[in-house]
Design goal:
two-stranded antiparallel ribbon
Length: 131
Amino acid sequence: MATDAPPPQRSGTDQAAPAAPTTEEFVEVQQSAEFGELRRTYRSFAFPLTIAFIAWYLLYVLLSNYAGGFMGTKLFGNVNVALVLGLGQFATTFLIAWLYSRHAAGRLDPQAEAIKERMESGSPNRTEADA
């Protein structure tokens, strides 16, 4: 849900708190090389996995619709190929979620935290090399 409301302001009693970043500072950070690297890091992980999962899901749907004989092949007892592939969809979903959480914690969160700290300190242009 989008809103045009300004971000919440800190109470006037805390004089040590920095002022909220301006719109210009947000735009400046968005156009920075560091923010671009954060987006590239996210996209290089999310896009390939999304495409792979959609392809895997569509394969399952197409096999279910057009390869009934194959999907009905019994592997053992009453367990057939369709059941195994269907359960594989759930396993794949949880695997991707776990991989993403590891990727985010290891690569995305540190980059985002560095950008956030610079924004909150009032120096959006400052990089690690400047320190």
